Amino acid sequence: MNDITHPETMVQLSRLFPNVIEPGSIHRALESNVQFTKFVQDYLEQQGHRAQEEIARGHLLASDLFWILCGLQASRVPLPEELLGLIRERVPRLYVQSGGALPALGYHKDWQNRPKIYGTFYCTSIAEMLELDLPAEWVEQTARWVLGQQALGGDEEGAFIEEDAPSVHDPRNGYWALASLRTLKESFGADVDITGAHDRLDDWVSSSFLSDPPTWSATKLRHALLVKWDGENQVQLPKAIEREVVGLLQSLRTNVGYTEYPPVVKMGYRDDDVALPAFLHSSLSVEVVSKLTGIDIDRESISRLVDTIRESGEGGGIGIPVRIKEYHMFPVETPLETTCAIILLSNYS
Amino acid sequence: MAWRDHAYGFINVPVLLEQSNGEISIELSDSAVIRSYHAAYRWDVDGRFTRIESGNAVTSILTEIPLTYDVILLMGLYAGDGNKTGNIGFSQREITITAFVHRGLRKVFGENVPFRWNLLEDTKRFLTDDYREQLRVLEEELVAKGFEFPPPNDVRSFHCANRDYEIQAREVELMKAFIRREFEAKAHAIGMEVDEARFSVTVSPCKGALSPGQSALEYIQGIERSRPFLPLWLKILNGCVNSILENRVREGEWLLWREPPQESSPWKLDVECYINSHVRWLTSTRNNRYSTSRAGDDLLRLSKRGDVYVEVYPEWPISPFELLHSGLYLAEGGTKKETMFELGSEVTSGLRVSFTSSEERLVLNFLRFLNRLGPNLLRAWKVKIGKKYSAELDILAQKRGVLPLMGGEKGQGYLRTMEVAEDLLAWAEKYNPGIGGIREKFSHVESTGVGIPRVDIHGVNSTVDVALLTFIRDLMINPDSIEDCLVKQ
């Protein structure tokens, strides 16, 4: 068994959800919520087995795998040796020789076989988490490839942009690119100076993303703030932006948890008035935004959401469905949301 | 008897009303919304027509509706683009289809039934130099005729997509005059009479055009004061559609087909005759025809160029099933309707066969429709999800820790995030279990338009496109060409 359950290894989650991950409290929360713990452990183990079977069949989604590993780690389920062996063997197939990584194996269209920023983030994160060896040449090529995805000029200068989606300018891509570069540099010795890239991205976040509140959502804002966070001090936002953030957080609040997009995003172009429900990952993003900015949020609301998940124990995993009219969309329960549930539980126990 | 006069079956309206004691109730699923309808009627058979009352409203309808080719096409068209709320009516931007439905509704409800027309257009269509110039010329002409425009300080306000718009009332009136004149010219060209007194035009920046010059034109026709009779009409429509899709010879005692409607094809189309005699397409340099050759007794090869060919059956049935789907395709098919009506007479481009619906049975039956014309015509299908659900799409991606990567210029279009594509494939299979058999032909997810998530049959063999689209079109506007090549069974 590979010991990814040791508290000190929860590095990747701590970076994604800074100031809310405290391994000790996670473990205490799990110990005092036996039914919940058994439930999420069973689900994540089952996801691990499913991933193992999928990988053995040549099918691998790096993001899913990363979140399964994070979930196993957070819920203290040891990683089976067989799965670890498969990961060691198959994950390197995601590396693209000219730099970057695919988000998935087993797909055949051209665009599916081009590296993606998020694929690179998940690959490098998995490699770091499991202490896999990365080929030195690929590490250098990938660092250069990631840097090459940053716009150097134009209206979106500083944003990291995927070749296949040139009009998508999103702080999540920026964060994943920067995090990949940091991992490549700090854990795998890439010879790369990321200061300039970081500064340009930071400028883009301020001048483009943060200046356009109608495009915000809880998760996007968390990633934007992760870019701006220095790792220690609270992020200082201009007063006008801070007021907008306060307004966003208020508009995301429901009686039971926080949702992802404010109602105005729907009301602006929709004839239906069905509000989006609260989501676990959105509530956790709001918690991070609050921790990084010092802006108050309604923790009673999140606490009520946590109460509803504490008693979970039927079905599989934890997740709040997205509905479009009468359709229940997929996915419902995911390793990401289940992991978010564990983290929330530890903060609200 | 000629095919075009053949009634595949009959609908007896008084029998329907008698069987339900004049109380019509019906539930329909449309765009994932279930709507309930209920109405009570009194009726009086008056020869060919039956007079029907609901409260103070009165209408008339054919006592016995013969299910001839044009009525079945009308049913397909109405099932697609017909009004399901409000008055009995129909919305389309293509004038030939509009006129066909107009004739069909007058055939069913009587020549003198009063129609009201409303023409809708997006103001963005006029934001190009060319249109501005056309509006300027029109303005001069109208002013010369004494038309009085609102003063420059009269401004109309609009609010949509979270934005406020203000447009000079003078410009709005000019745009309306332009649309009206355009419609009248088109209607006149195909011999459709429109009562000018029952005519209105609406222009607004909120009609859905995305960029300057783009049109969101709609011609909406409705039978005046027919709202109380919509449940009856939808009951008739639904009975007709359901019996065809389920291949039932009767619906109660009020709808009777001569034979099971999917098997009822007293004539079949000799495809080789039809293709060689009537199917053409123009390119900038020449008039093109298919070359045809037999592949044994069972298949006919059609080729547009070189050795690229598609195999189809040498005879195509023309049953209520084909007619219904042709009507549905003319309403909801993915081919630009103007292009279908230009085929063979003008240079056309961007031709493609595609069909999308939020109803599984319509998707599956469209596939059956294709399969009855030739083997292996389907190449690919995708899931479409309206851009207005981009918040939901983003959240679905977030649940996997990824983001929706769309290739379009405005964050729309082909989704290049396989995690989300996999999830939407799973969704499509759950809500459309019948598509399991074509899972391997799933292509991708596309964020476009405004609709709810739905399966889109978008990849139909491109060699068959001209033949198939000409056939569908000719069933409606050129039945003579069909008659030319019918083989009596």
Tell me what you see in this structure.
The complex is a heterodimer of chains A (349) and B (489). Chain A is an all-alpha fold and 349 residues long. In chain A, 54% of the residues lie in helices and 2% in strands. In chain A, a hairpin with a 2-residue loop joins strand 3 (323-324) and strand 4 (327-328). The longest helix of chain A is centred in the first third of the chain and has 23 residues, at 34-56. The model of chain A has no long low-confidence stretch (mean pLDDT 91). In chain B, 35% of the residues lie in helices and 28% in strands. In chain B, helix 2 (69-81) crosses helix 3 (95-109) and helix 8 (320-332) packs across helix 13 (465-477). Chain B is globular and about 75 Å long. At the A-B interface, helix 4 and helix 12 of A face helix 11 and helix 12 of B.
Key structural traits:
heterodimer, A: 349 residues, mainly alpha, two-stranded antiparallel sheet, 15 helices, 2% strand, B: 489 residues, alpha+beta, 5-stranded mixed sheet, 14 helices, 28 strands, globular
**Uncertain regions spanning at least 5 consecutive residues of chain B:** none
What distance lies between the first and last C-alpha atoms of chain B, to the nearest angstrom? 14 Å
Could you say which structural class the secondary elements and strand pairing of chain B correspond to? alpha+beta
The total of beta strands of chain B comes to 28
Write the layout of secondary structure elements.
The complex is a heterodimer of chains A (349) and B (489).
Chain A: H1 11-16, H2 23-31, H3 34-56, E1 60-61, H4 62-74, H5 81-90, E2 104-105, H6 117-129, H7 136-148, H8 171-186, H9 195-209, H10 218-228, H11 239-252, H12 263-267, H13 280-293, H14 299-310, E3 323-324, E4 327-328, H15 335-347
Antiparallel strand pairs in A: 1-2, 3-4
Chain B: E1 9-12, H1 13-19, E2 23-30, E3 33-40, E4 42-46, E5 49-54, E6 57-62, E7 64-66, H2 69-81, E8 89-92, H3 95-109, E9 115-122, H4 129-144, E10 155-160, E11 163-168, H5 169-189, E12 199-204, E13 218-223, H6 230-245, E14 250-251, E15 255-257, E16 267-270, H7 271-278, E17 281-282, E18 287-288, E19 291-295, E20 299-305, E21 308-312, E22 315-317, H8 320-332, H9 337-342, E23 355-357, H10 360-373, E24 378-385, H11 390-398, E25 413-415, H12 418-431, E26 442-447, E27 454-460, H13 465-477, H14 479-484, E28 486-488
Parallel strand pairs in B: 9-12, 24-26
Antiparallel strand pairs in B: 1-7, 1-15, 2-3, 4-5, 5-6, 8-13, 9-13, 10-11, 14-15, 16-22, 16-28, 17-18, 19-20, 20-21, 23-27, 24-27, 25-26
Helix pairs in contact in B: 2-3, 2-6, 2-8, 8-13
